[in-house]
Amino acid sequence: MSKPDTPYRKRALGNRPLSPETLAMSYGYDAKLSEGSIKPPIFQTSTFVFSSAEEGASFFRVMGGRAEEGDPATPGLMYSRFNNPNVEVIEDRLTVFEDADEACVFSSGMGAISTVLMAFANAGDVILQSTPLYGGTETLIRNVLPNYGVKSHDFVAGAPEAEIRQSLENAMKDGTVKAIYTETPTNPTNEVVDLELMKTLADELGERQGYRPPVIVDNTVLGPIGQKPLSCGADIIVYSLTKYVGGHSDLIAGAALGSSEYMKPVRKLRSAIGTNLDANTCWMLARSLETVTLRMKAAFENARKVAEFLNDHPKVERVRYLGFLEEGSRDHKVHTRQAGDYHGSTFSFDVAGGQKGAFAMLNALQVVKLAVSLGGTETLICHPGSTTHAGVDPELRKRLGFTEGMVRVSIGIEDPEDLIADFDQALSKI
């Protein structure tokens, strides 16, 4: 939640703004409150002691939106489902990377996505979504939320504007569009969604239906280093912090970031349904955030080298790497506007021989790890059609360009020449 300006929340040195990498070391934490400890201790507690009954009552009034004159601007520590020092430290530090007012952390990426969508879309409402999305999100929107009366309409991420607008018209016939949900670049096909267009559509919806839906963007694949959606037209960013921010394949967490206006209902619902994150995982995330820029930039550079090797290999039919977008194309223009020269370290490629060829290569890898997830220090690879996106309707997968031989790889920070050698020997087994 919005915090008062304090010495340990200063974002500038005189007239010089401090970078997120610098702020990640100390922002939001006062060592004097923790016996001078240079790093925040883990506040492994369920509840907090009030100094008086009146103080406890005031904290609960502020948390519940019932503040009275004389109450504090923000609630003090109450109960770890609502707030906790470790939660507040990581939330504060995430905001500086995205230039957001507030952040909320969650028990998983899907916890973040579910809570955000439920905070805005109710029974009878409609979600306009791009596709493909992460498999769990597709399942949530298409299969779970309809059980609670929430409908959806989709458009293909790389579709022309006219086609996207037609999807919007169809959505409006079904009810009030309460959210525009997208993921860019897409997982796993690396298509690009134009966030400026999403903002335009949201603004137009505000005029036409009397309610402007938030533009919600899953920024897991490129952020927080490669892309800043809030500066490109988004209202809310969601993350699987499990991936690059956590970055060591040793935790599960999620986040949502945005303005105080948009975060208020999200935070309220998180407290109500208990999708909050625990103190220990918050402590681990704060540790990892200190090196996220170094890790992501190293992985991005490794991915470029591996992608170039795969692109020239006779047993690879197509490499879906953002650095290979055709110059001057619609996707290239949008990607350059939104992410500059950052092309990420997660991409898919199509192996010759369909699923049989893909499985032969996967089973032969010795350095690259055969596992789902992405954004770790180690290189991970999987076959989305039979794992992460197995629950997505086969006809939809086909419509979105999935092939039987498509595999997704997340390049880590190993020696890139070792990775190339591993792919070379594994592809020879096809």
From TrEMBL:
For this protein, the record's InterPro entries field holds: Cys/Met-Metab_PyrdxlP-dep_enz, Cys_met_metab_PP, PyrdxlP-dep_Trfase, PyrdxlP-dep_Trfase_major, PyrdxlP-dep_Trfase_small
What highest taxon heads this organism's lineage?
Answer: Bacteria
Q: Which GO terms describe its molecular function?
A: carbon-sulfur lyase activity; pyridoxal phosphate binding
Task: Print the keywords alphabetically.
Answer: Pyridoxal phosphate
Q: Which GO terms describe its cellular component?
A: cytoplasm
Where N6-(pyridoxal phosphate)lysine occurs along the chain? K243
Pfam families reported in the protein's UniProt record: Cys_Met_Meta_PP (PF01053)
What does UniProt give as the signal peptide span? none
Biological process annotations from GO = transsulfuration
Cofactor(s) needed by this chain = pyridoxal 5'-phosphate
Q: Which family does it belong to?
A: Belongs to the trans-sulfuration enzymes family.
Put simply, this protein is called Cystathionine gamma-synthase family protein
Organism for this UniProt entry? Marinicauda pacifica
